[in-house]
């Protein structure tokens, strides 16, 4: 009898979830990446409501991964390399609390790992402003936002913003990218 693979979950927000979904989807050991909303006060928020900045939610991704293939620390490495964790409430042209850098930890192990990771980045001269909060509720984004980059690769936004980000991650983390 085969032993079922273990699955852990990580939730990150690093700007537009279309970008972060595309980045994490290409990593080996990642079983699924789902865009959504978390970290706010509104129950069952919509994309339109989150875009106002009034719900308190950030655009995030929920990453289900096999920790025997890719570790939470590996995911943190890619997360911090794929966005600017030193700018509060902004990633490029995306401005507002819904685009903040945020880690929503599932347990104390994730919290401690993320705290240590951030402390190391700060010791190396960064000024990380990433929020680190417990995961309360993850609200899945509307179906139109799932696999958005994959469905719309030729739009100018993706050519200018997402493609360079993906190439940077592929080049820098070759050992973590699916072949």
Q: How many strand elements? A: 8
Q: Helix/strand/pairing class, anyone?
A: alpha+beta
CATH class: Alpha Beta
* Number of helices, where a helix is a run of at least 4 consecutive DSSP H or I residues: 6
Strand content: 15-25%
Roughly how much helix do the residues carry, as a percent range?
A: 25-40%
Number of folding domains? Answer: 1
* General form: globular
Unreliable residue runs: none
Order of helices and strands: EHEHEHEEEHEEHH
What keyword list fits this structure?
two-stranded antiparallel sheet; 179 residues; six-stranded mixed sheet; single chain; alpha+beta; Peptide Methionine Sulfoxide Reductase, Chain A
Description:
It contains six helices and eight strands. It is an alpha+beta fold and 179 residues long. Helix 1 (17-25) packs parallel to helix 6 (156-172) and helix 3 (72-82) crosses helix 4. The chain has helices at residues 17-25, 47-51, 72-82, 108-123, 148-151, 156-172; strands at residues 8-14, 30-38, 58-65, 90-91, 94-95, 101-105, 131-134, 139-140. It has one domain (8-176): Peptide Methionine Sulfoxide Reductase, Chain A (2-Layer Sandwich). The two termini are 28 Å apart.
Topology:
Layout: E1 8-14, H1 17-25, E2 30-38, H2 47-51, E3 58-65, H3 72-82, E4 90-91, E5 94-95, E6 101-105, H4 108-123, E7 131-134, E8 139-140, H5 148-151, H6 156-172
Parallel strand pairs: 6-7
Antiparallel strand pairs: 1-3, 1-6, 2-3, 2-8, 4-5
Summarize this structure briefly.
By secondary structure, the chain is of the alpha+beta class. It is built from six helices and eight strands, in the order βαβαβαβββαββαα.
């Amino acid at each position: 009898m085969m032993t079922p693979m273990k699955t852990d979950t990580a939730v990150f927000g690093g700007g537009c979830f279309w970008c972060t979904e595309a980045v994490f989807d290409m990593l080996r050991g990642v079983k699924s990446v789902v865009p959504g909303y978390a970290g706010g006060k509104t129950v069952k928020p919509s994309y339109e409501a989150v875009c106002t900045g009034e719900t308190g939610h950030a655009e995030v991704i929920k990453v289900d991964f096999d920790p025997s293939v890719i570790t939470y620390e590996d995911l943190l490495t890619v997360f911090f390399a794929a966005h600017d964790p030193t700018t509060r409430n902004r990633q490029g042209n995306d401005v507002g609390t819904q685009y903040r850098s945020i880690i929503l930890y599932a347990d104390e192990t994730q919290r401690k790992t993320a705290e240590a990771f951030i402390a190391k980045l700060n010791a190396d001269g960064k000024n990380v402003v990433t929020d680190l909060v417990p995961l309360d509720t993850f609200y899945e984004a509307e179906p139109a936002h799932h696999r958005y980059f994959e469905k719309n690769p030729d739009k100018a936004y993706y050519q200018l913003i997402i493609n360079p980000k993906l190439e940077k991650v592929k080049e820098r983390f070759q050992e973590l990218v699916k072949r």
